[in-house]
Amino acid sequence: MIWKKPWFQFTILLILAFVWGSSFILMKIGLKSFTNDQAAGIRMLLASMVLLPYSIKNLKHLKKKDVKSLLIAGFIGSFIPAFLFTKAQTQIDSALAGMLNSMTPVFTLVVGVFFHRTKFQLFHILGLLVGLLGAIGLIASGNGLEFGHINSYALFIVLATCFYAININEIKARLSHLSGMQITSLAFLFTGPAALIYLLTTNFAPVLENPSWPIHLLALAGLGIVGTAIALVLMNSLIRHASAIYASSVTYIIPIFAIMWGLVDGEKITLLHLVCMLFILLGVYLISKKK
């Protein structure tokens, strides 16, 4: 099966890193018209609407024993972190958000070891440290990181990464019998109504006062459809076939694409950038090793 192939798993990691690396920009655009909570709600609602046909189709696979895990996948893995990230990005820059997001593999290992008895090798720990060092170095070497902007809002990102870690381990341990599409569509069957109910309680009058709101809504649509619905189908499929730590290492690769976007924008890649990228790739390689 192609999902078992290391080269295919790494390709999925690169695709996810590219998509989620662009999500920070889309969030910022959406926040120009919408409040942080409205942006998160719209993201979740649009993702659930896109997945709705598959949710209905996969209802026959919904078992009572899986409901708890699907609720964790929906709310702990997506719904609450979406609100945490948009809240955080009202006060901290995207570079810092990306750096804090790189803590996900570390938390994934901790949760796996303490709550799921995950087995690991020393080179997996080495890979985590090397990858984390490369990710932090890559972000810190850019111009976008302002340590003066570190405040209590950074804790929202840290909490979100903890939730990601819980979700990844839960899917790996208890939902591996379902496909990535089944997991994602059934999880969003629960979060969609919650997002709709919340949005109906908010005030959209200030939003309509901004003549550019349709463009900002389009950014949130991209965030919901591509950055959430499609990306999570790929991520949940990857979790089923690779280790939880390996799947979470996508957050190490995201900064590489941030640097690539900088290249397009006219920025230069330095030797330090290249060294940090090698550290990231080496770390991911070590994490992926079976023995």
From TrEMBL:
Where in or outside the cell it occurs: the entry states:
Cell membrane
Q: Where is the EamA domain?
A: 12-138, 153-288
Protein keywords: Cell membrane, Membrane, Transmembrane, Transmembrane helix
Q: What is its membrane topology?
A: Multi-pass membrane protein
Any one cellular-component term (Gene Ontology): plasma membrane
Q: Name one Pfam family in it.
A: EamA
Against InterPro entries, the record matches this protein to:
AA-Vitamin_Transporters (IPR050638), EamA_dom (IPR000620), EmrE-like (IPR037185)
Q: Where are the transmembrane segments?
A: 7-27, 39-56, 68-88, 94-115, 122-141, 147-166, 178-201, 213-235, 244-264, 270-288
Q: What is this protein called?
A: DMT family transporter
